Request: fold
Amino acid sequence: MSFKLKGEKLERIESATENIINALIDTLSDKVPRQNSFKLFEEKNSSSNSVSAQMNKVFGRQKTIHQILGGGKSADVLLWRNKRISSSVLAGATAVWALFEWLNYHFLTLICLTLASGMLLQFVWSNAARTFNSSSDVPRIKLPDKLFMELAVSAADQLNQFLGFIQDISCGRSLKDFVMVVFGLWAASVIGSWCNFLTVLYIGFVSAHVVPVLYERYEDQVDYSFANLVGVLQKQYSKLDDSLKKKVSKRKSFKSKKSE
Reply:
């Protein structure tokens, strides 16, 4: 009885999540107008305008968001090319998270209950087929070996790319990139101390389904704000650098006078 009630709760959660996501995407796309362009400087030459717009892209990127995300079906899901599929994937992830976090299920419990339910279904099916002299075979589930090999190769490839990226940053000479990566890892560690690993994965999964599509729709506004933020940071950095240089030069001059 309790399992049935929990199943009904999961269906309600999944349905409510799908409705909320669809309503959110529709509302944002209808009420917020997408502007064609934001430029930091007005220029007469069209070629210089395109160069300026390219320089104002976040992190100086040259590819589209769809290409950065891989350009395949996964990118279509993350960018909500098909709202039904994307909302179903997000609702399924929400249902799994709610199953473990809200309903206090454990992974081993879920696996055992799923296997027991499958065995019960096959048992009833096979006995019903024998009773009614039916020739239909009981369906059997067999996972393909190729699927696990592809998943393992893909996971290893992504992990190697990530390790190569952080090692390139560590061995490189860009202090800015090094500080940004270290700060990102530190922020991830802080977030991980606030909640468990499953919740962190769920937050990342939801962010991957929300942030790219919002950025794609309001790309010009985000690039404009990002360019302004970078300009402010560069001014503050130049001021700090000038003040440090002045202090260093004063100390050198003071030491030279003292030595004399």
Summary: The first helix runs from residue 2 to 31. Confidence is low (pLDDT under 50) at residues 1-5, 31-55. The radius of gyration is 28 Å. Residues 194 and 200 are 9 Å apart (CA to CA).
